[in-house]
Amino acid sequence: MTEFDLIRTYFGDLGSRRTDVLLGVGDDGAVVQPPAGQTLVLATDCLVDAVHFPKDAPVDAIGEKALAVNLSDLAAMGAQPAWFQLVLTLPKADQQWLRQFATGLGRVARYHQMRLVGGDTARGPLNVTVQVAGLAPPGAALRRCGARPGDAIVVSGTLGDAALGLDLWRGRADRDDPDVAFLLNRLHRPTPRVSLGQALRGRATAAVDISDGLAADLGHILSASGLGATVDVDRLPLSEPGLRFGGRERQWGGALAGGDDYELCFTMPPSRLHELDAIASRLGVSLTRIGYIQPQPGLRLVRGDRTPVTLAACGYSHFPEHR
Amino acid sequence: MTEFDLIRTYFGDLGSRRTDVLLGVGDDGAVVQPPAGQTLVLATDCLVDAVHFPKDAPVDAIGEKALAVNLSDLAAMGAQPAWFQLVLTLPKADQQWLRQFATGLGRVARYHQMRLVGGDTARGPLNVTVQVAGLAPPGAALRRCGARPGDAIVVSGTLGDAALGLDLWRGRADRDDPDVAFLLNRLHRPTPRVSLGQALRGRATAAVDISDGLAADLGHILSASGLGATVDVDRLPLSEPGLRFGGRERQWGGALAGGDDYELCFTMPPSRLHELDAIASRLGVSLTRIGYIQPQPGLRLVRGDRTPVTLAACGYSHFPEHR
């Protein structure tokens, strides 16, 4: 099977059909028509074998995750997903692998009404790179730099599940246990908060997605905004399965520095916090206020009683240098 | 040096500044403003270590080539380059390597007035993926599918140089010889025909860039257009250095199946051929008519005297399965 057959078979018609795609897969480039008066939001993320997913990860989940982590970036920008490209290098054209990969990728693409419009394939170590393009009204895209002192810090969903899921996957935990299955799904099939990101346009003052752990990613908001924050670790949203298998302190560590959660962290003026409940219930996602922005730089962790705590005391001893 | 320091240092301000970049490197995504009434052309190509460039290739040339091969796709579409993203996986953050790579990448970006707006870095086997976005008026993008019987087939520049350059590089030929230097430059630092592509809007009926050899790439035009062609190998444009080091028959093979030339191949009605000289002289690129499109599918190779020849007779025995 040549490169061209392979592309045609598995990637020629992937995702939702869109009338704004004037020329899709199969030429030197794709041609799309951005709607008048919208800005274009571009993002790209790669998954490297054994770095961003375990060697034995379900193949359809690799396809899901490759697009989901990019959608998470669009979510953090408040953008509406539109088109994507795929670059796939793989050691050999294993048809079963490709079929499963395309199945997972297509599932996420259709759910978010995205269309695969082009890409590249080559022989090489397994590497999956996706590039996404989304749309936002002028001035509406969320940035990391707009937080203000006094803003509340809010996170979606629960944190620390993916890091724990990785340990359970490696430890070959019982996958028939529904709590184990939940945590493994959080690792392998992250849920990008695309609708939430769009709902935060004009409401959040800054936003980021949590891919490297809350401490690092909230840190991006703080350094971009030139500010600091206090976070109450007792308020970190932890899942029941996470508490059962990880325990409270370990999950704090996973939430702060574990990575791969793909939830959103955003800041919002106190005057707007009353809008959160309606958004959370409309979108079916929990939204938890965990702290507040302060003028003094740095991230300060406290317990509810205001006792300072350290990252190490939260059960975590190092930051991975690369994710 | 963390991933974030590395990005800031080498990639934070790369390429030409553009007023249509509303938010560049350093957030979850970039925000750009496409001009009203233009379509967007998207393309992506990756370079895999030791597959798309030799292990010991000059590092700044890897940076040049990573963007140039993508620009060649935009050229084949007749698009005007605008923005690009870079995904770089590398085994370690070698600062000298990164500096040289960014120097080459930046040189090509500035020449084509492109801006690097985002990307991703991760630890892994060396892999360089670039995604480009360009602009074209509605309906103006060149495609592979518009060739018509009787159209002339034209190629830019000279063919077969890069394949010969690779042999000379591997054979450690004398790089002080200007002919060797020419051929190595053709391999390491391809010249994307961006201005030519734009000049062909409304003139060429179909276009493709020659990355896998003329036979394969012209083959894409033929299959997309549902047609065939006859090409006169005596007319294939060969360089003097190519003839000196490779000889005529070997260079035919390199032209037809050698790859990496990044010239354009396009089709044009005979009634427009008189425009070619002016375009060639304005852009400083040679344009050579090598054959014509026919209704009967398939690619037929002849010598000027109409004697049929085969690819094997042109000195080439196989097609690489993946480039």
Structure description:
- 2 copies of one chain form a homodimer.
- Chain A is α+β, with helices and mostly antiparallel strands and 323 residues long.
- The first copy, chain A, folds into 2 domains: 3-136, PurM-like, N-terminal domain (60s Ribosomal Protein L30, Chain: A, 2-Layer Sandwich), CATH 3.30.1330.10; 152-302, Alpha-Beta Complex (Phosphoribosyl-aminoimidazole Synthetase, Chain A, domain 2), CATH 3.90.650.10.
- In chain A, 34% of the residues lie in helices and 25% in strands.
- Chain A has helices at 3-11, 59-77, 95-111, 161-170, 178-188, 194-199, 214-225, 240-246, 248-257, 276-283; strands at 21-23, 30-32, 39-48, 80-90, 115-123, 127-136, 152-156, 206-210, 228-232, 263-268, 287-294, 298-302, 308-309.
- In chain A, the strands form 3 sheets. The first copy, chain A, has a 7-stranded mixed β-sheet with strand order 8-10-7-11-9-12-13, sandwiched between helices. In chain A, strands 3-6-4-5 form a 4-stranded mixed β-sheet. In chain A, strands 1-2 form a two-stranded antiparallel sheet.
- In chain A, helix 3 links the parallel strand 4 and strand 5 (115-123).
- The longest helix of chain A is centred in the first third of the chain and has 19 residues, at 59-77.
- Chain A is globular, with a radius of gyration of 20 Å.
- The first copy, chain A, starts with a helix and ends in a 14-residue tail after the last strand.
- Chains A and B meet through strand 2, strand 3, helix 2, strand 4 and strand 5 of A and strand 2, strand 3, helix 2, strand 4 and strand 5 of B.
- Strand 2 of chain A pairs antiparallel with strand 3 of chain B.
